[in-house]
Amino acid sequence: MGSTITKSIWLKSLLFLFFVVIVQQSIAQTGEVKIAGVVYDEGGVTMPGVTVRLKGSTRGATTDANGRYTFSVPNTTGIIVATYLGYKPLETPMDGKTAMNLTLIAEPKSLNEVVVIGYGTQKREMVTSSIATVKSEDFNKGVISDPLTLITGKVAGLAISRVNGSDPNSSAEFSLRGAVSVEGTSSPLVVIDGVPGGDLRTIAPQDIESYDILRDGSAAAIYGSRATGGVIIITTKKGATGPTRVTYNGYIATETVAKRYDVLTGDQYREFAKQIGFEPNDGGANTDWFKELTRKPVNHGHNLSVNGGTGKTTYNASVNYQGYQGIDLTTSRKFLNASGRLNTKALNDKLDFSVNITNSFDNKRFAEYYGFGQALNINPTYPVRNPDGTFYETPTVGFGSQWNPVANTVYNTNDSKESRFLGNTRLSYAILPSLKADVSYSLLKTSYLTGSYTSRDLLYMQTSGLGGTASRSTAETTNNILEATLNYSKQIKEHNFSVLAGYSYQNEFNEGFNAGNNYFNTDAYLYYNLGAGAALRDFSLNNRGGVFLGSYGTEWTLLSYFGRATYDFKDRYLFSATLRREGASKLGASNKWANFVAVSGGWIISKESFMQDVDFVKNLKIRAGYGVTGNQQGLQPYQSLALYGPYPYGTNSGYMGNGVWVPSAGPTLNSNPNLRWETKKEYNIGLEFTLFKSGWLSGSVDYYTRRINDLIGNYYAQVPSQIYPLIFANAGLMTNKGVELTLNAKAINNANFKWNIGFVGSYNKNKVVSISNDQFQGTAHGITDIGVGNMQRIAPGYPVSVFYGKKFAGFADDGGWLFYNQAGQKVTADNVTDEDNFYLGNSVPQYNLGLTNSFSYKNFDFSVLVRSGLGFKAVNGKRLFHENITQASTVNFFTSVLKDYVNAPPTFSSYYLENGNYLKIDNVTLGYTVPVKKSNYLRSLRFSVAATNLVTITKFSGMDPELGLNPFSSTGVEYNSNYYPRTRSFTFGVTADF
C-alpha cells in the first residue's frame, strides 16, 4: 500500500507541476502589452492607411480612417516603425510607453511619387524618361464634359483644344509635342487601367485618380506602333483598406455666350442697304437671329462612390450621371456611367486578382452647326414666325439661300444612343519573391445607334418634293486584348535591376449598317419607320437622293512581343532599355513586322559626395533617352490590298453590251504590299531638380528632336502598271523640335496659409522636310477651302498646314484688290496667278503656357488657371463674306461695315491674316470646407463655385482663337458657315464624404 501511496503522491506532484507550467504560460500570454496611438502629418492632420509595426517582427496594424492604430506587443522595450508612401519612415523607441502618437514628415513629392511607366510602375526618382504626372487633387474644376479638360494647361507639351466651341457632344482635340503625321492621326495613345486603346468617353471624369503622360520616345516605345503621338495613361480610383466610405459629388451649372458677332440690326440693315444701292426683301421685322437660337442652359452632374476594404479584399464602385444642355435650342447630352473595381489577395498574398468593369451610356441630340452660321447670314428684317405661328420662310428658300435657322434647328432631329463597355480582369502571381507573372484579359465594346430626320414641314422639303428625309445607322466595335508579362527584380548589394518580358494580342472587329429614305406622309415616325417613305419603293419619283442602303465589316489584329530591362547602381546611376517587336494585319505583306527600340539613362548628381555640402540642391538629375515608335492608327484595315467592288470605281459599275447593261466588279484601289507604318525616331535630354532645404522649388527642363519617316499619304502612281493614278503609300519626312519647362513652387507653406504655383511652358517647331522619295512623288498641295479656294498648304520646308495665298498690297481706286507679285510689284487681282502666292505664316501655336496659382487659408481654398498660346496666325473666315458688300444677297454684315468695307469678290490673302495669340483666365475656383465635428456619419463637407473660360485677351476677331491642333482639321481657321459658340460656365458644387 505504501508503494501505492508513494505513486499517488508522485502522480499528483507531476500534475501539479504541469498545472504550474500551464498557468505560467497563460500568464505569459495574457501578460502581452497593448499599444495604441494616432498618426499625424506635419500639419496635425490624422493619416489613415499608415503601416505601424514592431521592428523585427510581423506584429503591426494599419491606421483607420481617423489615423488610429492598436496592436499587442510582448513588452515595451522594442522600436515602433511607421511607414507611408511619400513620407520618411519613422522609428520610435517605446521606452516603456503604451500610448504613442506619431508624426510623419513628408519627403519631396517629386522624389517619392510612383509613376506609371507602361506595364509597370517606377519611383519618380528612378525614371529615366520624360513622364509628366497629374493627380486628381490638381485637376481643373467646373463643368467637365470631356475627361481631357481635367488637365488642360497642366502638362508641358500637351496641347488640348475644344475646336467645336462648347458643344457638349464634341470631344477635345489633343496633341503631344506637335503634329507627327500629315494624313494620319497625331493623337496620343490612351491607356486606361493598363488597357491600350481605351476610349476616354467610357469613363466618368470623377473616377480618374491620375494621368501619366509618356512624352518621349524612350518612354512610349513599350507601346510600339501606336505610340508615335505619345501615350496618356489613365489610372482610375481603386479601393483602400478601411471602413466603407461613401462620397457624393454634385454640381449644377449654367452657361453664357463668351462672345458673339455684332451684325446689323434690321434698322441698320435697311439703312446700309440704301447706302450701297442694294434693294433687299424687307420682312418688316427687327430680328436678333443669334438670340433666337440660344437659351440659358442648365447642366448638372452627380457622382456617388463607395470605397473600402477588409482584410485582403478592397473594392470601389461608383455611379455617375451628367445632364447637359447646349447653348442652342435643342442640343443635349445625358451620360450615365457605372463602374466597379474589386481586388483581392490569396495564398499568403502571392496571388493578386482584380476585376474592373465600366459601362457607360450616352444619349445625345446633336447641334445644327449650320444654324449659327445661317444666323449671321439671314436678313435681320425677316421675322421668325408668320402671324399664324408657322415659321417664316422666303418663297425661294433652298440650301445656300436665306432659310430660317430657327426652323431648321427645330425641324432637324439628329440623335445618337451610344454604349461603351470596358471590362478587365487581371491575375498576378508571385512565383518567387523576385519573380511575378501577370496575365490580363480586356474586352472593349462600343455600340452606336444613330438616327436623323428632317421634317416634311420644312419649306425646303416641300419645294424640293422630298417630303421629309430619314436615315438610320448602327455601328459596333469589339476589341479583345490578351496580355501576359513576367517580371523579375533583384537587388545584389548596391546593384538593382529588373527585367520585364511580355506578350500582347489585340483584335478589333467593326461592323455596321445604314439606310435612308424620303417622301414620308407624316413626321410621326421620325426615323423609326424607314419603310414608310415612298422613295424606297417608287422609282418614278423625281428626287430619290436620300435613298441608300449599306453595310460593312472590317477586322484587324495586332500581335506583339516586348521586353524592358532597368538597372541602377547605388541608386544614382540609372539605365533602361526597351524592345517591342510588333506585327500588324493592316500593313503590306512585305512589312507586317517591325522592331521598336529604346534606351535611356540617368545620373542623380545630388547623391554624389561632392554635392553633399551644396545645401540648396536637394535633388538634381540629368537624363537622356532615344526611342523608336510607329504610327498605324490612321490606316484602314485593308488599304494595302486590292479590294474588289463596283468597277470602274466611282462609276455606275458596268457596261452596255448589245443593248444590255452588264454590271461589273474589279479593284477599287491600288494595292501596295510595301505599305508600312510611319516611324518616329526621337532624342530627348532632360534635367530634373528640387532646390532649397525645404524643397520648395522643383521642376524639369526637356529638349527633344523628332524625325518622322515614311509619312503615309496618297501619292502619284504610274499608270499603267497601276490601275489608278493615286496610291496609298509611304514617302516623306517631317521633324519636330522643342523645349518644355515645368516649375512647381511652394511659395508659402504655413499652417494656416499655403500658396502653391505651377507653371508649364513648351515650344515646338514643326517642319515638313519632304513629301517624296525615290519611288513615290508627292507635290505641295493645298488644303482648307471655305469657298474661296485653298487657304493652307502641305509643302516641304514649312510647317504642316502653313497659310498660303496672295500678299495684300492695298485697294485700287475702284475698290478692287491689289496684291504683290513675286517681283514685289503691286498688281490688280486680274494680273496675279497661283505663281504669285506666298507662304504667310504658321497656323498652330508654337508656344503653349499654363500658370496655376493655388491658395488655401484655413478652410478656404482658391485657384486660378491662366493659359496662353503664342506664335501663330489665324483667319476669321466669316470676315471674307460679312465685311464684303458683294455678298449682300446672301449674308448680313458685321457692324464694322458702317466704318469700312470691302467691295471686291471674296479672295483669301494676307489681308485676312490675324495675330492669333491669346491669354485666357481659363478656370477660377473658390471652395470652403465646412468644419465637421466628429460624427459616425459625416466625415467631410465642401462647397465650391467655379468659372471656366472666364476672360480671353486676344487681337483675333473671331469667336475664339483656339482653332484646332491636327492637320486637316483646319488649324487656325474659323469657318464661315458652321460653328458652335464658346461659352463661359458657372458652377456650384458640393462634395460630401460619409
CATH superfamily of the domain at 110-236: TonB-dependent receptor, plug domain
Shape designation: globular
* Unreliable runs: 1-30
Strand content: over 45%
Overall average residue pLDDT:
89
CATH structural fold name of the domain at 110-236: Ferric Hydroxamate Uptake Protein, Chain A, domain 1
CATH architectural label of the domain at 110-236: Beta Complex
Query: Can you give the helix content as a percent range?
Result: under 10%
In whole angstroms, how far apart are the ends?
A: 78 Å
- Helix/strand-derived category reads mainly beta
Tell how many strands the DSSP assignment holds.
54
Tally of individual helices = 9
What about the largest sheet? Answer: 22 strands, antiparallel, barrel
Q: Cα-atom Rg, whole angstroms?
A: 34 Å
CATH class of the domain at 110-236: Mainly Beta
Describe this structure in words.
- With 994 residues, this protein is mainly β.
- Among the domains are: 25-107, Sandwich (Immunoglobulin-like); 110-236, Beta Complex (Ferric Hydroxamate Uptake Protein, Chain A, domain 1).
- It contains 9 helices and 54 strands.
- The strands form 12 sheets. It has a 22-stranded antiparallel barrel. A 5-stranded mixed sheet has the order 10-15-16-13-14.
- Helix 6 (369-377) runs antiparallel to helix 7 (405-411).
- The protein is globular, with a radius of gyration of 34 Å.
- Residues 126-231 form the TonB-dependent receptor plug domain.
- InterPro entries: Beta-barrel_TonB, Beta-barrel_TonB_sf, CarboxyPept-like_regulatory, Plug_dom, Plug_dom_sf, TonB-dep_OMP_SusC/RagA, TonB-dep_OMP_SusC/RagA_CS, TonB-dep_rcpt-like.
- Keywords: Cell outer membrane, Membrane, Receptor, Signal, TonB box, Transmembrane, Transmembrane beta strand, Transport.
